[in-house]
Specification:
The complex is a heterodimer of chains A (314) and B (322).
Chain A lengths: L2 H5 L3 H4 L2 H7 L30 E3 L6 E3 H6 L15 H8 L5 E4 L4 E2 L8 H12 L5 E8 L2 E8 L10 H17 L3 E5 L10 H20 L4 E5 L3 E2 H4 L8 E4 L5 E2 L3 H8 L10 H6 L5 E2 L5 H11 L1 E2 L2 E2 L3
Chain B lengths: L12 H19 L5 H20 L3 H8 L7 H8 L1 E5 L12 E8 L2 E8 L5 H6 L7 H16 L4 E7 L6 H5 L2 H12 L6 E10 H5 L6 E5 L3 E3 L3 H8 L6 H8 L3 H6 L5 E3 L10 H20 L3 H13 L4 E2 L2
Parallel strand pairs in B: 3-4, 4-5, 5-6, 5-7, 6-8
Antiparallel strand pairs in B: 1-2, 2-3
Helix pairs in contact in B: 1-2, 4-13, 6-8, 10-11
Classes of the chains: A alpha/beta (314), B alpha/beta (322).
The complex binds zinc ion (ZN).
Zinc ion binds next to loops of chain A.
Chain lengths: 314, 322
Amino acid sequence: MIIPLLIRDFEAGVGMAIKDLFKTKPKYITVKPSGEFPGKIPSIEKKEIPDGLWVKCDRCSQITYHKDLEKNLKVCPKCSFHFRINAKERLELLVDNGGFQETDANMRTVNILGFPDYENKLKKSQKNTELIEGVITGRALINEIPTSLAIIDFGFIGGSMGSVVGEKLTRAAELAIKEKIPLIIISGGGGGARMHEGIFSLMQMAKTSQVLNKLSDAGCLYISVLTDPTMGGVLASFASLGDVIIAEPDALIGFTGPRVIQQTIRQILPAGFQTSQFQLEHGFVDLIVQRKDLKATLTQLLKFHLKGGKVNGN
Amino acid sequence: MAINQGPVLEFEKPILELEKQIEELRVFSRDKNIPMEEQIHVLEQKARSLQTEIYKNLTPLQRIQIVRHPKRPTFLDYVGIIFTNFIELHGDRNFKDDPAMVGGIAYLDDIPVTVIGQQKGRDTKENIYRNFGLPHPEGYRKALRLMHQADKFGRPIICLVDVVGAYPGIEAEERGQGEAIARNIQEMAGLSVPVVVLITGEGGSGGALAIGIGNRVLMMENAWYSVISPEGCASILYRDASKAGEAVQALKISAPNLLEMDIVDEIISEPLGGAHKNPQETANNMKTGIIKHLTPLLKLTPEELLADRYQRFRQYGKFIEN
Ligand SMILES: [Zn+2]
């Protein structure tokens, strides 16, 4: 029987397996891929900055003082490797001082299926991220330009999309439509659709994708920013549907997780597979923007769409 | 009875065992010329009640075994019975034709419709050609092309879903599997013709949803529809893909669960033991269901169809607000 072997768990990459990736070291982590992206493929877990005072860069092995790395927006000063940052740090980076008004801040998840251990997972994520759920949404001023902004936090169950994330993203799009402002979604979700909410999480892919038709009909700009990692059901819905798609350097971006692909095809994956550069080369992102330049680039793009002092209205 | 129905599943073995005994008794009775009608009758009744007992109390995991049965009818088998004058249309006009996704035009009674679905192979050789019914991006793009064509000519669209998931490979990623699925979902939501989706076997995650945005969504009795395959979930949850049974219970992926959660509108019944026991009867049931749900949609305007579909998917999700 070939089928069971083939299908065994590749779907894991579609759902929550990415999260799985971070817990167990993939076997092929020791493989040093040659070429442009040395050590890139499976080394996701190392991108979190540990608590110690000194941080060793995953790519160039440069050792940087913790505070210096933070000052440099968590980008390696030597090789500009981009470590992950959380949603609040991202907010600081992009939004004008005092320019953020959060929406749906108290929307909470219910364990609709009675899925085993889900409440514990939620509690742990809430403690670690100090967020109630995996996305922050709100009205945001970016260099004084009003936008509807959503930022997904990878630390919250792998940045996966359940009912709350799906609903808040949909409302962020509806806010943009109502106020005729651009929508910006920063994806940082490796989890894709959130397994713990079963079919309801799959339906969030439909919900978040279809609202973008209304957004488009309203003439609103939608910028999708892909950060590390953007996988599975997140990539296979709203994240792929931007008028402009920006990727941060060093992000893992793909549909099926590398471990699952590797298990299925039983070959070593090519160097740089599913990186931002790979997606640029294959035509799925418009541009790669360094973290330090993201606000300026967004501003420039927003300004292109200003009409009569208003953003993208008719 | 079990002629040409392929392998017997483990839980069906007691039925087969009993049928064998009855047959042996018949032979014995005939050879020895001893009348045993009464005993045979009793055993036959017992066989029937055993059959009912087993097939009416299938566990979700046993249902998955049924939908993965090698003799389970495939997309083209159903198309041949439900529709007439089917003309297959090939290719995504961009890269290539994906044999794992099939589509074309046909008549449903006297209504021209576009029919689309994943095509599994009926044997090993065909499975290799069909890539086990696991589409690449070009498969999804072909499906979308045919949907746009249907939209242009006002043809209703019928999607028959049967897929474990979109194919997980290097080339699929290079050609944008994620983008292809996302695009399909978004553009299906914008179709101004009626769309009826029927999950015939496996409804695996984004690979299923990419042809699954319907005004109505129906599901076969033994089918599953889920955000992740049972094995995938089990390997994450229990670190053991063989614990799929427990994962299935947790995920609530079988038809009665999904009907209760308003994900599907109706369950289409299968013959006792599954679709492969009687493909003709199965396809007739499917056709009745499709027509029943399509008919009222034919009376709606394009705007009403769009609003109807939008509302369906807008409401999904449970959360607390305060
Ligand atoms: Zn470095």
